[in-house]
Amino acid sequence: MIKGKFIDNLPKVYGIYTGGFLVFIIIMAIAEQAGMSAKMIGIFFVAFTVLIYALIGWLSRTLQTDAYYVAGRQVPTVFNGMATAADWMSGASFVAMAGGIYFKGYGYMALLVGWTGGYVLVASLLAPYLRKFGCYTVPDFIGTRYGGNLARFSAVIVLTVASFTYVTAQINATGTIASVALDIPFNIAVYVGLLSILMCSMLGGMRAVTWTQVAQYIVLIIAYLLPVFWISNNIGAGFFPHFMLADEVARIAELEGQFGFVKNSAADLATVPKGLAGITKPHSSVNATPWAFISLAVCMMAGTASLPHVMMRYFTTPSVRTARRSVGWSLFFIFLLYSSAPMLATLSKISLMDPTLATGIIGKSVADVQALDWYQNWNQANLMFVSDFNGNGTLELNEFFMKGSAVVLATPEIAGLPYVISGLVAAGGMAAAMSTADGLVLAISNALSHDVYYKIINPKAETAKRLIVARVLLVLIGFAGATIAALEIQGILGSVIWAFDFAMSGLFFPLVLGVWWKRANAPGAVAGMLLGLISGTAYLVWVRNGGSGFLGITQLTFGIVGASVSLVSMIVVSLITAAPDAAIQKMVDEVRIPSGKTILGKQH
Amino acid sequence: MSKQEQHWEKTRNLLFITLAIWFVFSIGIFLFGAEMQESSIRPFGYPLTYWFTCQGSLAIFVILIFWFAGRQEKIDDEFGFTEREGEQ
Question: What is each CA distance from B82 to A128, A318, A594, A595, B66, in whole angstroms?
Fold first, then answer.
């Protein structure tokens, strides 16, 4: 693939790709009619898409540092927006978020606001300035702006803690999907997922990740929107669900009142498989205190602006101006999926709850539900469970349990859509988890190879050697992530939220103040990063071990503690130590205007 | 005041306006979530708070970023700080 030509032909290339994918879906649909088994369709969908990504990864292989680290800084605005959206929307967004909203309602919708509002901070506070800086990695900015290996190394530590927490969740998600779609045990599926991730990123670094992420965005957005529109039309809820589900939202509230939220006894709940939940919170009413909602949203927003794998996507645009606009496009592409998640949760719930719909199961006899095909499949996969607690033979609202991820993965089947849609959704979930895992593994290994190996340990290393080190680290980090993912310590959504809190604790203020406060200096930044990370982590450990916490800050919002400590310590330490020298002051002035040369050279 | 200082002052003012709008729709309105939910204003028929969490605020953020980018480009142009082609 010729480079210049490829960039010029992007709309055509991805247009053909999208068309090809749609044709593939149609072929699968015909094959299903002709009697192809559900299992084979699942395998085809996942295998076909993963092979395409691997092919793109191989075509984008490179031996140049600026191509490997920042895709040669020539990714056009809109395409960078798509790539960022795929980078951003992980297994948590695709597989887990609609489930979180389904079970927790308003309280979890704070994630929708938090995971989008953060981009306003990215666009206004950071992305254009970091692009002007011309760095390869986020620690590269910290190390150059503040000066000194200690600052650089502290940034690498925060980056690694946050991104590694995040990546284990993504490898967990690829494993979950691969195990369902390919019908293999989870602890093997995790490594199948890892292998696919490495194939996309190893040879071409950021360049390969960019072009596979665009391809993955196209798959995941089709896979998310198609079932939402289809189900909505199927049950007659309206042809454009986003504007037409108000009646269904009201109907759910009415049904909730009718069925009531009955609390199960502890003995009954003990019989429910681990990780499954029932509906215990109302769908649309405001059921969280303002502080619970706002604190979660704030953590997700500040975390967004501190996560290195997102920030580094804006290093790949051709200019400062395009970096800024690219943030807008990223959020637009994210918005397409996020505004659909609550609609999917609504459609899923109404399909299951409404007794007047053919798909409704609440109020039907337990024996009938247990005889349903889809129930048996998902029950076998340990994602669904019903039990007649009160012994009346009828399924009550409090007797139906599902895993969060089943809301997205199983809804098409529940709503009576052909299996081809379920296969498509599995491919979409795989794309979402893989694209984020790619970005994260690359962020960690780039920081270790560029900032630790090249900038600190061996500044004389040749390009070829640097890129070999980068690739070896990539594989090692991937395997470490998969090994931890196989242990299943924390659920997907939980680990992702932790990652945001870690990133916010250590990096938010050192990054923002690096641009917006000239007086910030190296000792201040180091104090901010390390004390922020340590205090946030300490609070998490304390609350996890039965600590009562304070100010209503939970294990999901510990970033508020970390970031506050980070801000105070950074300001105090900066003010009691010497102001940064004239060269650094001048550097900050340079960063603040878009014109002129980048601070760091093209190859560095 | 030098050209660069003026440019930075305008940039900073734009930041404050942007962050103020951001604050209102990401934090401010959710202080009154319960009250807004009872409001008779129902976009597309959805309860007001519910609508803001799943569409309203999100869409406003998208528009806000493009608006911000446009304004910042104007400021950069005004002071001649816009990048020239091929200058990176």
Answer: 12, 13, 6, 5, 17
